[in-house]
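Q: Please design a sequence for this.
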């Protein structure tokens, strides 16, 4: 699992406001290709907003975000380029309820990437196998458990062959027994060297796969480190407080 020295995402002095509320402050972050980053912090700290800015679901007002050499600005061509390279998995699965699992996975490749239908179906089956639910291909989302739907959402993102995957609290809407199956899927992706940014409270996952853990509070990056150091030796008082609340020591 090599991290390359090629930059996948470069965020420089980025700021974002909602009206007068300063939601992200002076964010500087360099993500290298193949790196797996876990972003944690109390709710309202700006974690989800940060990763939503990376594929322009949210607009930043100041500073720059460059993804794969494309700067995210008001140029829609660049936004489309970035979105086609960056997969996103949300807290709620956002599957189309009226389409089968297979149709959910082939829709974007066929319409956006212009992939021939047969190839799109083969690719979808490949990724449904990877997330261990090929037998659900002809069912509808409503017939699947939450954990299965989230794995479909991951497969659907992979069908676009993204270079980077963003996960926004992918397990927080799931029952505890389903969390493991989704995390296992993500761990497998991580082992294949996918560049990943994941907002999550699952600290076991952070310890297992992250190269770097980033702690955010009040719209700022307060602390970042490799997992062992981050958990065993947090520097900032805010980080110590947060960890004692979620890990309980």
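A: Design:
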């Amino acid at each position: 699992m090599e991290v390359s020295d090629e930059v996948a995402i470069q965020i420089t002095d980025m700021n974002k406001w909602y009206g007068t509320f300063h939601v992200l402050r002076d964010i500087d972050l360099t993500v290298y290709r193949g790196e797996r980053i876990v972003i944690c912090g109390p709710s309202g700290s700006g974690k989800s907003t940060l990763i939503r800015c990376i594929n322009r679901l949210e607009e930043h007002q100041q500073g720059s975000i460059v993804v794969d050499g494309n700067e995210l600005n008001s140029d829609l061509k660049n936004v489309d380029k970035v979105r086609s390279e960056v997969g996103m998995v949300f807290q709620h699965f956002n599957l189309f309820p009226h389409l089968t699992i297979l149709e959910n996975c082939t829709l974007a490749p066929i319409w956006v990437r212009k992939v021939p239908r047969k190839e799109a179906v083969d690719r979808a089956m490949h990724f449904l196998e990877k997330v261990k639910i090929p037998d659900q291909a002809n069912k509808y989302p409503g017939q699947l458990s939450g954990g299965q739907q989230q794995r479909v959402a991951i497969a659907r993102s992979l069908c676009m062959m993204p270079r980077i995957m963003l996960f926004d609290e992918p397990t927080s809407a799931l029952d505890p027994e389903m969390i493991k199956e989704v995390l296992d899927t993500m761990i497998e992706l991580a082992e294949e060297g996918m560049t990943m940014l994941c907002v999550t409270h699952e600290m076991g996952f952070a310890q297992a796969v992250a190269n770097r853990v980033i702690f955010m509070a009040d719209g700022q990056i307060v602390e970042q480190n490799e997992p062992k150091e981050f958990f065993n030796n947090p520097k900032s008082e805010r980080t110590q407080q947060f960890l004692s609340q979620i890990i309980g020591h």
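Q: Thanks. Anything notable?
A: The CA atoms of residues 125 and 134 lie 6 Å apart. The domain at 7-247 is CATH 3.40.50.300 (Rossmann fold).
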